[in-house]
Design brief:
T-fold, 338 residues, 31% helix, eight-stranded antiparallel beta sheet, three-stranded antiparallel beta sheet, 9 helices, alpha+beta
């Protein structure tokens, strides 16, 4: 979970795959902005707070023209809504929902194709540790623990094996005709990458609009430039209990966090939403992973991949994305940098 330099509204319920992020107030404006100036409006922060893909979200822009900043924020919010209509699991008419329901998606959007291509690349680089086809496992565990008196050890080995038989990123077929899932019963979740992709789309649009000091929080974090006073943006990491922890300093970078505490199916936390495709069970090699990378799409997917793959394979997986680095929290609470 994270804090940074700007105030946000109270957090909402997180999406199932992301660690909660709360952006707390500690903004320090540049000295020049505080001092008296005779001519023209002075730059200040302009913010939007809301929700994207189930996560508390915000956009913060530093600009002297309030009208331009507010109009830009409105356009970005519309863009977020457009992309949610592509990637949401909970909108019945989204592209993803239609693909999961029908097994085929004709005329897939460029956004869907781009995310699926990146997903397959990260899946290949991580030997399947990141796999967007784990949705049948999610459904299996959700349905199991929703039953009164559910076996606390989880679904039966037979049920897990059946669900695992539907998990294979290599059976996602992407072509000029659209997207097809090769086996009946396959289903995708893009919650491990779509938030990062939406973050990048919005950040790229804002950069093209000429905004130089920006923080985008749309489930994952990306900053443009520095804080207006010239220092890096400070992103504070919080653990699952909300306690203060380490601080990241970012300039033109992104960060993403993965931890099993994001969504748990049972009170013990043994069964959570980040699945190891090799076992069909929740991954427990690490407690938390924080990835920093130039782009949020990569940081988002890599965080999940490393959480599943574990420390031994972390350097190999990170090496596939130039500039990526990670903080891995082991099960004993110690932290290693990769």
């Amino acid at each position: 979970m994270t804090t940074r330099d700007l105030p946000l509204a109270a957090p909402r319920t997180p999406s199932r795959r992301q660690a909660l992020k709360i952006l707390a107030a500690s903004a320090a404006l540049p000295v020049g902005a505080i001092g008296f100036r005779m001519f023209g409006p002075q730059p200040t922060f302009h913010e939007w707070h809301g929700e994207a893909l189930g996560a508390a979200s915000s956009l913060s822009l530093w600009h002297s023209n309030a009208g331009h900043a507010q109009r830009t924020l409105a356009r970005m919010v519309s863009e977020v809504a457009r992309l949610e209509a592509v990637f949401s699991l909970y909108q019945p008419d989204s592209e993803l929902s239609r693909l999961n329901r029908d097994g085929v998606l004709a005329n897939a959007s460029r956004d869907m194709v781009a995310v699926l291509e990146t997903s397959r690349a990260i899946a290949s680089a991580s030997n399947g540790a990141f796999d967007p086809t784990v949705q049948p496992l999610w459904t299996l565990y959700q349905d199991h623990f929703a039953q009164p008196g559910a076996d606390p050890s989880g679904p039966s080995p037979k049920a897990i094996a059946a669900a695992r038989g539907l998990v294979d990123y290599q059976r996602i077929e992407v072509s000029s005709r659209g997207v097809r899932l090769a086996s009946q019963g396959m289903a995708l979740t893009l919650n491990g990458i779509a938030q990062g992709y939406i973050t990048d789309v919005v950040a790229d649009l804002l950069r093209n609009e000429g905004f130089d000091h920006v923080v985008v929080e749309l489930g994952e974090t990306r900053v443009l430039g520095t804080h207006p006073d010239g220092r890096p943006w400070r992103v504070g990491l919080r653990d699952a209990s909300g306690g203060a922890g380490r601080t990241l300093e970012l300039i033109n970078e992104s960060s993403a966090t993965s931890g099993g505490y994001g969504t748990m199916f049972d009170l013990s936390g043994e069964h959570h939403h980040i699945f190891d495709p090799n076992t069909g069970q929740s991954a427990h090699r690490l407690t938390e992973v924080v990835v920093t990378a130039p782009r949020a799409t990569d940081a988002d997917a890599l965080a999940t991949a490393l959480f599943v793959a574990g420390e031994d394979r972390a350097a190999q997986v990170l090496a596939t994305v130039p500039g990526a680095r990670a903080l891995l929290t082991r099960t004993d609470g110690t932290v290693v940098r990769v």
